[in-house]
Specification:
Layout (H helix, E strand, L loop, with lengths): L12 H11 L4 E4 L3 H13 L6 H11 L7 H10 L3 E4 L5 H12 L5 E4 L13 E4 L3 E4 L2 E4 L2 H8 L12 E4 L4 H12 L13 H13 L6 H9 L2 H6 L2 H17 L3 E4 L2 E4 L1 H9 L3 H15 L5 H9 L15 H11 L15 H18 L4 H8 L3 H24 L3 H16 L6 H4 L6 H9 L5 H6 L2 H8 L1 H10 L3 H8 L4
Parallel strand pairs: 1-3, 1-4, 2-3, 4-7
Antiparallel strand pairs: 5-6, 8-9
Helix pairs in contact: 2-4, 3-4, 3-5, 8-11, 8-12, 9-11, 12-18, 13-18, 14-16, 16-19, 18-19, 23-24, 24-25
The structure holds a DNA duplex (25 and 15 nucleotides).
DNA sequence: GGACGGTGAAACTTCAGGTTGCCTC
DNA sequence: GAAGTTTCACCGTCC
C-alpha cells in the first residue's frame, strides 16, 4: 500500500482531507455522529470553497424550494450546494435527499457530510470515505460504534466502475486513540448478528399474525414453528423459549386478540384486524383502552393526537427541554379533561416520556393548524424530514385507531378520528377539506383560494378562470376547472392569457 | 452614578436511524 | 464525552 503525505492547510484534519480530495478531483463521504455536526462540517468546507458553477446554482435553488416556505435548514443546504458540498441526514426533506444522492452519483456534488444513514440501504460509493467520529452517544454515554457500523461506512469507499481502489480514513484525536482504532476496527471481529425476533414487539406481532392467518393453532404447532427459527437456533434453550411464548400467548388472550378453545388458538375479529394492520399488539391494546375511555367522556382532536404519540411506534418523541418543563406541565394540566391515555404521576418512571408524548402531540396539532415547517423547526426542533416521518406514522396510527373504533362500535369516535387523520395528512384546518379533495391542491393552494373567498367546489365553479390562474398558475387552474366539470369553458378564455 | 455593551469563562444542553402498515375519509 | 449554546460576572465606556 503506497503512502502519501497529505497537505494540512487547516487545523481541522477533516477540512484538509476534504480539500485534498477536491484537489485530486475525487469525491468523498464524511461520516459524523450528529445531524448538527453534519451540517456544520459541510458548511465549514463550503465556506472555504471558491468555485461556483451554474449547474450547482440550479441544484441549490431546487433544494431551497423543496418546501413551500424554506426553513433555515434549507438555506443552509442551499449555501453548501452552491459550492458542490452537501450534508445528508434524516432531517432533510425527501426531495432534497434525492437531489443530493443523484447529483453525487453524477459527480456534480463532490462531498457529502452525513450521519450513518448513508451507510445503509443507499448505494452511494465514493473514492474516499472519511470517518470523523468513531464514537457515538448511546445509553452509556459516548461509546465506540460497533465494528459492523464501521465496516458498513468504510465499505462505501471505492467505486468499482471508476476507481481501482478506494480509501477509508478514520480520524483519531490522540495516539492512544489511534492504537485503539487499529485494534478495534482494523483487526477486530464484527459483532455476532442477533435475531430481531427476540425483541418483544416483533415477537408479539409475529405470533399474532401466525395465529390470525391460521398458520398455527395449537401450542404444539406454535412451539414447533419457532423452534425452526434463527432465534431458537441462537437461543439454544427451548424451555425458556417456550416460557416466553406462553407468556406472550397469555397476554394476547388477555388483550382479546386471540381466544383459546379446546387447545386451539383463534384470532378474534379485532385481533385479525390488528394483525392485518401490522401494528404492535401492545399498542393496539393500549388504543382499545383509550378508545373505551374516550367513548365515555368529552374528547377532541387533541385527545387522539396524544394517544397516538404515546406509543412505541411514534418514538423517538419530541423531547421536552429542561426550560420548557414547567410550561408543558401546566399545559398538560389544562388539557387534562380531554386526555384519554393513562397519565402517570410526576414521580413515575414514564412521566418524562408522557410529557414528551404531550409535546409531540402539540407539534402535530400545530401542523394541522397550518403552521409551517420553519415554525415547527424553530419551536419543536423537528426538521422537515423528521416531521414527514412522524406524519406518516401518525396517519397510519390514526387509521388503525379508526378501524378499531369501528370494530368496537364506537361510531361517534370514528368520525372524530377520521377527521384528525385527514388533517394530519394535509396539515390543514377542517375548513379546507372541500378544496383539498382536488388534485394538485394541497394546503398552501387551498389556503390561497380560501382567502379569496373560494371555499368549496361550488365556488371553484363560479370563480373566474383568470382569477384562478393568477392564484394557482395557468396549468393548475385548468386542471382544477376540469375537475369540477368545466373543461372546455376555459381553454377558450385562457387563450391569450399567460 | 448608572445604563449600556463587549468579553470570556463557566454552566448547561443535547446527541443516528428505521420497514412495514391501510385505502379514500 | 464533546461541541455548541446560553448565562453571567466583570470591566470599560459613554452620557
Amino acid at each position: 500500500m503506497e503512502k502519501r503525505k497529505i497537505q494540512t492547510p487547516f487545523d481541522e484534519p477533516v477540512l484538509s482531507l476534504a480539500f485534498d480530495t477536491l484537489k485530486l478531483n475525487k469525491q468523498c463521504l464524511i461520516f459524523v455522529n450528529t445531524k448538527r455536526s453534519a451540517e456544520k462540517t459541510a458548511e465549514e468546507i463550503a465556506k472555504n470553497v471558491t468555485a461556483e458553477n451554474p449547474d450547482l446554482l440550479t441544484i441549490a435553488l431546487d433544494a431551497k424550494s423543496a418546501l413551500s416556505s424554506p426553513t433555515h435548514q434549507c438555506e443552509r443546504l442551499s449555501f453548501c450546494l452552491r459550492k458542490g458540498i452537501a450534508f445528508h441526514h434524516s432531517g432533510l426533506a425527501a426531495k432534497q435527499r434525492e437531489i443530493i444522492e443523484e447529483k453525487f452519483k453524477e459527480g456534480v456534488v463532490k462531498i457529502i457530510c452525513c450521519t450513518p444513514t448513508l451507510a445503509y440501504g443507499l448505494d452511494l460509493p465514493a473514492f474516499r470515505v472519511i470517518i470523523k467520529d468513531l464514537k457515538r452517544f448511546g445509553r452509556q454515554g459516548l461509546a465506540w460504534i460497533p465494528v459492523l457500523d464501521y465496516l458498513q461506512q468504510a465499505g462505501r469507499a471505492g467505486r468499482p466502475k471508476y476507481d481501482s481502489r478506494g480509501e477509508a480514513i478514520a480520524i483519531a484525536q490522540t495516539d492512544s486513540e489511534k492504537e485503539k482504532i487499529i485494534d478495534l476496527y482494523i483487526h477486530g471481529e464484527p459483532e455476532p448478528i442477533h435475531s430481531k425476533l427476540a425483541v418483544e414487539p416483533a415477537l408479539r406481532m409475529y405470533l399474532l399474525s401466525l395465529i390470525a392467518t391460521e398458520m398455527v393453532s395449537s401450542k404444539k404447532e406454535i412451539f414447533l414453528f419457532f423452534e425452526k427459527t434463527f432465534w431458537a437456533h441462537q437461543y439454544q434453550d427451548s424451555s425458556r423459549l417456550e416460557t416466553i411464548i406462553e407468556r406472550m400467548l397469555e397476554l394476547l388472550e388477555e388483550w382479546e386478540f386471540i381466544r383459546e378453545n379446546e387447545e386451539q388458538y383463534r384470532a378474534t375479529p379485532l385481533g385479525n384486524r390488528v394483525s392485518q394492520l401490522y401494528i404492535d399488539p401492545f399498542t393496539a391494546f393500549q388504543m382499545t383502552e383509550c378508545l373505551r375511555r374516550a367513548a365515555s367522556k368529552t374528547v377532541d382532536t387533541f385527545s387522539f393526537l396524544q394517544m397516538i404519540s404515546y406509543t412505541l411506534e411514534m418514538r423517538p418523541l419530541v423531547k421536552v427541554k429542561t426550560k420548557e418543563f414547567e410550561e408543558i406541565q401546566t399545559q398538560v394540566a389544562s388539557f387534562h379533561e380531554v386526555l384519554i391515555t393513562e397519565e402517570p404521576g410526576p414521580f413515575d418512571a414514564e412521566y418524562d416520556e408522557f410529557l414528551d408524548s404531550f409535546k409531540t402531540a402539540l407539534m402535530l396539532h400545530e401542523w394541522m393548524n397550518e403552521q409551517t415547517e420553519e415554525f415547527l423547526l424553530e419551536n419543536f426542533s423537528v426538521r422537515p424530514g423528521e416531521l414527514q416521518a412522524k406524519l406518516d406514522i401518525a396517519e397510519w396510527l390514526l387509521y388503525t385507531a379508526q378501524e378499531m373504533s369501528t370494530l368496537m362500535h364506537f361510531q361517534s369516535l370514528h368520525r372524530h378520528i377520521a377527521k384528525a387523520r385527514f388533517r394530519i395528512k394535509y396539515g390543514a384546518k377542517e375548513e379546507l377539506f372541500a378544496l383539498l379533495r382536488l388534485e394538485n391542491i394541497g394546503r398552501v393552494r387551498a389556503r390561497k383560494l380560501f382567502a379569496q373567498g373560494i371555499k368549496d367546489l361550488g365556488d371553484v365553479k363560479k370563480a373566474d378562470i383568470e382569477v384562478l390562474a393568477r392564484l394557482l398558475g395557468k396549468g393548475i387552474a385548468q386542471s382544477v376547472k376540469k375537475q369540477v366539470g368545466q373543461p372546455e369553458l376555459l381553454t377558450k378564455t385562457l387563450e391569450g392569457f399567460t
